[in-house]
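Weekly structure sync, notes
Attendees: PL (lead), two postdocs, one rotation student
Agenda item 3: pending single-chain targets
PL asked that the sequence for the first pending target be pasted directly into the notes so everyone works from the same version. It is reproduced below exactly as submitted, 373 residues in total.
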Amino acid sequence: MSWTFPHCPDANNWTIDWRTLETEFDWLRSLADCPQDPRYHAEGNVLVHTKLVCEALVALPKWRALPVTERSVLFVAALLHDVAKPASTLIETDGAISSKGHVLQGAKMAQQILWDLQVPFREREAVVALVKYGSLPLWFWDKPNPEKAVIKTSQIIRCDMLSLLAEADVWGRYCDDQPQLLERIAFFREYAQENQCFHQPRTFRSNHSRFIYFQKENGNADYAAYDDTRFEVVMMSGLPGAGKDTWIQENIPDWAVISLDELRNTMKIAPDEDQGAVVNAAKALAKDYMRTGKSFVWNATNISRQLRGSLIRQFANYQAKIRIVYLEAPWEELLKRNRDRSAKLPEKVLYKMKNRLEVPDITEAQVVDWIVQ
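Predicted structure, written out during the meeting:
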């Protein structure tokens, strides 16, 4: 099934209806009040730049040739690629203008905006990835390991789509180094093609080989890693009320479950209190299972990539095969389920967790399942 952004230009009319877009989206209007450094953006404020980027994208023959869903995803990413600049822009005493951190903050904002607009999960996360990695074609060669940076990104979002967004971004700015920036994008395209990850994710010899590649600092993408795993850990992930307990009961009812919620209840520790003792108790249980090679479920929200990563490294050290199961339900449904729970969370806590959510991606484990209602 294809998804179309209602305001995305199409073959019937390639014109962008800016009047309607600015009327409907306050986050778009706010870009007009955000200045940019004229050394890099002589075209003017962020709204002027965003409009030029979108117009440049729509004019690209390669964009017009894409399927309708991919055109919509790229168009929305162009609209949102600088959405966090108003919140992150600083004007220094010498007049210099900077917007440090706007990319990561912009990816978070894009996720929330599109979630509220009820954009389908896969398309929403594709836009988020484009916003997050949109500048990679310009700067990938400056990374400590350019090959790994490009291959990793290809697992999350297609590099050909990234290059189209980056090209539109460059055409949408007035700067002295525009020719050099376009050359970098051409180099990125060649590099991604050489690494077999331009139109599709780089393939690996096995799921375990892929996992080992991203766990090591300097791995070889062609290496066929020996699978020495002895047992499996299923790591649940998702906001409270997403259905993690139900999924476990319906799919792996006989597995041992380490539930942080149950440990909190047993230890009489509230969710807003220090969780150190709860986590330590859970890790102690996990170590007992892992020493004997027993598969188990780690049942918690696990919404932070950093937290998931620290746990996954510990599990992998015991030769575990890790499967992440991410569950998501509509936001209004999550709020309703929370209100119906006996141990409900304050809604402000849920909103904070939603803002911190980092959806798992395939580079984190041997297997990742996304189950979205």
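Discussion points:
- The chain has two domains: 18-194, 231-372.
- DSSP finds 19 helices and seven strands in the chain.
Action: rotation student to compare against the earlier draft before next sync.
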